[in-house]
């Protein structure tokens, strides 16, 4: 292991110890199921907004998207645009989600239908999405840690998996939330310092920076135009790429559960404003970092940045900005950025783990298996921690088994497709469609899961040039099918009680809204 790798590990160890202090404080305040799964509904709108933003300000964004902009220019920014627009659907459902008074996505549907089979199907799709996303993140973490520290892949995955499990098992949602918040603040500071340094080197003129970046890229002015990553001859591929992230975000269980942690529906809605603002600022910094890396990295630094899919662009750029890899400042900067990336990965996988463990404990055991037994609260509280350890072990072992040669894009693409094509249609229909029935929900969820698997298997992501569907992310096919299946199931299994069930759900959420408004007015006076 080289000196930089050792220094990186030291920085990472210091950051992890700091997070353990936060987890220890959170553990003392985590004594009930509500505390473990929803932080006791005690997170403020601003804090929740930072935590949501922290989930998206991940290593995939800080490292991966910076690398994509470095390699492909304009096309690399598309994922940032899609991520911001992904919050538009959430604006429609955030308040009703919180007012439903649930802990998980599955429980939201149960508030309306109260059916064990439906709850089980919803838990299945949620667990599939969470585990796919979690394994993809752990595989990415192993590859990244291996590149930055020299650790063997399996050791890197185990380290991440063990720390993730400890964070969740002891701190619950409160601990995971504060890890996200602290991580978001650190990334904002890091991004600001690096962006200011880059802009200062470019005479504080973004246009000059863009021209310098294009001049340094082999494609020249094509760097500033679409087509380098997603061929412009396939406009539907670009549209589908945007749809899978925009609509998939609103169906991700670990994102949706964040709205259950705040006090009321008004706070849930305001937390989105905070999240979009913080993410917008950070994403602008990412664009500056990607352009700055292309303009300022030369020779061996440029070659190293282009390796490993561009994932090392940010650490290498930090080292160059601080004086170069050979200098003390450069080595410290690279180590600190790498350590922050470790922390970022750890925070994201912790959020995913608590979503998966909550599904197992709250939906499968408390909601189905134990629903007629006494003292469910105590049983569920114990199972929440047990399931977090069990899911953490399974995800870690599976990530080691699939190894570095597995197609991570397939896992992430499938997770977003299931979220957008199964979870989101069922959730939207439950909250807004009066005639939507239990059968429609089951068909939509199960069918959306199957459709998502089929379309991505038939896409270039799996079949390459022999693909039957010429779209890398065939969301433009699977999402309409998901909504169509919800409609078809409702038509085939019409339920005379559906309007009454919808009215009860609507009354439940509207009463909550009215109560929240009265409380807000009282506090204002």
Q: State the total count of DSSP E strands.
A: 0
User: What oligomeric state do these chains adopt?
Assistant: single chain
**CATH architecture term:** Up-down Bundle
Q: Any idea of the CATH topology?
A: Sodium/glucose cotransporter
Number of helices: 22
What is the CA-based Rg, rounded?
A: 23 Å
What portion of residues belong to β-strands?
under 5%
State the end-to-end distance.
62 Å
Overall number of structural domains: 1
Runs in which pLDDT lies below 50 for 5 or more consecutive residues are 513-525
Q: What is the 3D shape?
A: globular
Give structural notes.
This protein is mainly α. It has one domain (3-404): Up-down Bundle (Sodium/glucose cotransporter), CATH 1.20.1730. The protein has 22 helices and no strands. It has helices at 3-28, 33-38, 45-56, 59-72, 78-85, 87-99, 105-113, 116-149, 153-201, 206-216, 235-249, 253-256, 265-296, 299-306, 313-321, 328-369, 376-402, 408-432, 438-457, 460-463, 475-492, 498-524. Helix 16 (328-369) packs across helix 17 (376-402). The chain is globular, with a radius of gyration of 23 Å. The termini are far apart. The relative contact order is 0.17.
């Amino acid at each position: 292991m080289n000196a930089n790798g050792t220094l990186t590990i030291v920085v990472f160890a210091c950051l992890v110890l700091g997070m353990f202090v936060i987890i220890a404080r959170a553990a003392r305040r985590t004594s009930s199921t509500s505390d473990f799964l929803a932080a006791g509904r005690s997170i403020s709108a601003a804090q929740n907004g930072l935590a949501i933003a922290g989930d998206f300000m991940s290593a995939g964004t800080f490292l991966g998207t910076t690398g994509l902009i470095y390699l492909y220019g304009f096309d690399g920014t598309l994922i940032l645009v899609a991520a911001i627009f992904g919050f538009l659907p959430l604006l429609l459902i955030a308040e009703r989600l919180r007012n439903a008074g649930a802990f998980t996505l599955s429980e939201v549907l149960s508030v309306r239908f109260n059916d064990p089979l439906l709850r089980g199907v919803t838990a299945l799709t949620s667990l599939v999405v969470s585990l796919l996303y979690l394994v993809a993140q752990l595989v990415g973490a192993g590859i990244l840690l291996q590149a930055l520290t020299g650790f063997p892949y399996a050791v890197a995955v185990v380290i991440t998996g063990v720390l993730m499990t400890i964070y969740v098992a002891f701190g619950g949602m409160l601990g995971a939330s504060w890890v996200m918040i602290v991580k978001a603040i650190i990334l904002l500071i890091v991004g600001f310092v690096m962006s200011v340094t880059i802009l200062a080197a470019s005479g504080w003129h973004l246009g000059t920076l863009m021209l310098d970046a294009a001049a340094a890229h082999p494609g020249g002015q094509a760097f500033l135009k679409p087509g380098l990553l997603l061929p412009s001859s396939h406009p539907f591929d670009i549209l589908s790429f945007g749809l899978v992230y925009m609509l998939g975000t609103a169906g991700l269980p670990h994102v949706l559960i964040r709205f259950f942690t705040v006090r009321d529906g008004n706070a849930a809605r305001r937390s989105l404003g905070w999240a979009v603002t913080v993410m917008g600022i950070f994403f602008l910094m990412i664009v500056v970092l990607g352009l700055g890396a292309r303009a300022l990295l030369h020779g061996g630094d440029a070659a190293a940045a282009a390796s490993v899919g561009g994932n090392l662009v940010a650490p290498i750029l930090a080292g160059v900005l601080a004086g170069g890899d050979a200098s003390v400042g450069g080595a410290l900067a690279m180590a600190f950025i790498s350590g922050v990336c470790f922390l970022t990965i750890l925070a994201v996988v912790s959020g995913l783990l608590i979503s998966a463990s909550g599904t197992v404990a709250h939906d499968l055991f408390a909601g189905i298996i134990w629903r007629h037994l006494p003292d469910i609260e105590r049983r569920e509280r114990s199972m929440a921690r047990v399931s977090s350890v069990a899911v953490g072990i399974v995800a870690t072992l599976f990530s080691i088994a699939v190894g570095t040669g597995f197609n991570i894009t397939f896992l992430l693409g499938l997770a977003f497709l299931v979220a957008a094509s199964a979870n989101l249609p069922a959730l939207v229909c439950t909250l807004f469609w009066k005639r939507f029935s239990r059968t429609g929900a089951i068909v939509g969820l199960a069918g959306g899961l199957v459709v998502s698997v089929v379309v991505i298997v038939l896409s270039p992501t799996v079949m390459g040039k022999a693909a039957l569907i010429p779209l890398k992310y065939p969301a433009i096919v699977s999402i309409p099918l998901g909504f169509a299946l919800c409609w078809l199931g409702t038509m085939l299994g019409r339920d005379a009680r559906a309007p009454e069930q919808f009215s009860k759900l609507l009354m439940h959420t509207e009463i909550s809204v009215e109560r929240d408004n009265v409380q807000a007015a009282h506090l204002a006076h």
